[in-house]
Here is the input.
Amino acid sequence: MNTTTTQKQFFSEQLLAWYRRHRRDLPWRRSRNPYYIWISEVMLQQTRVDTVIPYFHRFIERFPTMQSLAEAPEEEVLKLWEGLGYYSRARNLQGAVREVQERYGGTVPDTKEEISTLKGVGPYTSGAILSIAYNKPEPAVDGNVMRVLSRYFLIEEDIMKPATRSLMEKLAKELIPGGAAGDFNQGLMELGAMVCTPRSPHCLTCPVMEHCSARDARMEEALPVKKKAKPPRPEYRIAAIVEGSGVHAGKVLIRQRPQEGLLARMWELPHVEVPFAYAAAADGKDGSIAIPPSISLLTDRLAEETIGVRPERRFMRTEHTFSHIHWDMEVVICSLEPSVLPAASGMLMPSHYEWVDSSVMGQYAFPNVFLKLLNRYFQK
DNA sequence: AAGTCGGGGGG
DNA sequence: CCCCCAGACTT
Here is the structure.
């Protein structure tokens, strides 16, 4: 990288001017309320603009102030986050807002040191809030910014390495024009989203093509350099749709996940992981799960929780990919088997189980994989 | 430095 | 089908 002063100045000036002409009208750009900027930046972590927009509207309608969010029950926050993924973002946001209420008198801190102590506010988000809400000259380096900078300045370091990120932050900070940190940082991201796209960048409409080093070197498609992620590990699971009877007729059994870990505190269909050996025992050529004997793993587990069930028929097979795990899940419809219940009348289910139908599902937050299954079952 | 933590859209 | 996305946190 051999960077000249004119190349940097050109970039800063042209990008800022371009952004002010071409900025999209996004909901969180209609205010400089630090709380709204904060919500948007957290929602936008690893998530597309188009996905976030409806969530952002619902969230600020229900929680218009930090006080309203601080006082809300966590389940309600989680429910508004339902389907967005990375649910710790929602819990961290509420916890951090409570922290701002208590420690900072309800004002979002305006220094890097203070704001960075808040849960879920890392290097990117702190810079984004400080620059966009307070116009402080702090860099906000996300995937878009690293792509733009790696191309314009022909940086061939692996952008997954922390050292490369530090380099990018240093460079991005130097580029901020005086008094225009918010617009410049947003312009950098806007360019990455709209023009300097991951594949087939639209160089002919780019405001800084003239001095783009990657363009000169015909390297724009090859940058940024990024080591490939490991493929998700496969997991095989078998789930039950337990149909209620009597007072629970028309309802199915759901349960809440543990406090920590994957999909923490979300609701789900009862299910168990099936050892690979069981899954591989399937006769099918596609590696499908052998329902017997896998089903007994499920019924045994439920019996341990005082819930006796009897498998009735196969519902469907579904696959779902998380960042690091791939679920291949067989879903079986079961009926209640009162004879297996220790005291069918009196014995209470564990408190993390509930009966639901489609009318009360709205009170529970489900990850998409189970939301889709339940909606299909209830034919929504 | 590597693993954990969701979900969807686009080529 | 693969890649990527307005990342942060833990180990």
